[in-house]
Design brief:
Low-confidence stretches: none
Strand content: 15-25%
CATH architecture of the largest domain: 2-Layer Sandwich
Mean pLDDT: 85
Distance between the termini: 72 Å
Strand order of the largest sheet: 1-2-4-3
Oligomer: single chain
């Protein structure tokens, strides 16, 4: 598959200093091929923009045009992997192997949902946070949670 011609063009290139990245739209011409893998695109972009670490390149939202032979998507090149971890959504970090997905059982999620149905108001928010943070909240007693931290 990799022996057929492949052309990568970028447009709408912008250096985003606030998020420490370069962002652009990618046009990929791949006549005679079904599509191009994201790994192959990352390698090609890494060579085009002289990127030191290929983990700081993110490509996503690719759509193949009708009739094939051309795809369009988005690309981001972060200045460092730390910046990528700071600003990228967690699901994209997981897809690129920079983070791990926390596996929760279906039963556990349903039990948490049903427990939260039985609680009303401010307590519901606090209980949800407790279950997420696992006792890292300052409200440890039910009485403190009911008061909401306010003094009378």
């Amino acid at each position: 598959m990799a022996d057929k011609a492949l052309t990568v063009r970028t447009r709408k290139f912008m250096t985003n200093r606030l998020l420490s990245r370069k962002q652009f739209v990618i046009d990929v011409l791949h006549p005679g091929r079904a599509n191009v893998s994201k790994v192959e695109l990352k390698e090609k972009l890494g060579r085009m923009y002289e990127v030191k670490d290929p983990n700081s390149i993110f490509v996503f939202k690719f759509r193949t045009h009708f009739g094939g032979g051309k795809s369009t998507g988005f690309g981001l090149i972060y200045d460092s992997v730390e910046n990528a971890k700071k600003y990228e959504p967690k699901y994209r970090l997981i897809r690129n192997g920079l983070d791990t997905k926390i596996e929760k059982s279906r039963k556990q999620l349903k039990e948490r949902k049903n427990r939260s149905k039985k609680i009303r108001g401010v307590k519901k928010v606090i209980e949800a946070l407790k279950s997420l943070v696992d006792d890292a909240m300052p409200f440890t007693k039910a009485g403190d949670a009911a008061k909401g931290g306010k003094k009378k």
